[in-house]
Design a protein that fits this description.
alpha+beta, Split barrel-like, eight-stranded antiparallel β-sheet, 7 helices
Amino acid sequence: MATNPIRPTDASARGLARGLLRSARSGSLATLTTDGHPFASLTSLATDIDGTPLILVSSLAGHTGNLVADPRCSLLIAPGGKGDPLAHARITLLALARQVERDTDAGRRARRRFLARQPKASLYVDFPDFSFFALQIQRASLNGGFGKAYELEPDDVLSDCSRAGALIAAEDEVLAHMNEDHAEAVRLYATRLLGGEDGAWRLSGVDPDGADLMLGDRALRLPFDEPVTTPDALRAALVALAAKARDEG
């Protein structure tokens, strides 16, 4: 009898999937040409506050025309590492692409979060032929390495933002406050809790499940022990993590 290679989804699989997505700055995007042929291309990435992948694409790119004609797509995130590439974790997201209107709250948030993850995109982000697309996850295939395959639903990958309206509204203020007034705590998150190199790390985003940190082109993900949905809960989580980071010294 054949053994089912798919493992039951657990908290470890969900954490790995979210970490891969939230830490990624690029991925392989597969779209469909008008004659139905798969078309793979490289794209830069950011995530919306719930984890939905965001891409910024030119109307001149082949994948953009493909997405307009047929929104079905998939995104492979495979950071790799030393040795056999198949021994490292990767995730494939099956999604439907939706263009994000710029002059909306969602559009302004997409622009800010994308530039926080891809600062060099400031050179072309406002060109009239560039547009943001959100890749709405339908399901996902996670491979955590040999013998560690999972089939995931959107809720396994995305953060629950249904009660996080106040947190979403406060994100800009929180980031400015942490980066300007608590830069040392941010540095300790990166170096002592996440094993990052020393440097002027910055918080680039916060969400119910964690915070994103950036140093140049390097991105790290700081997960929270428990989801947070309010600015007060976020503040308490960050204070606790700062204390933990200092204790690590």
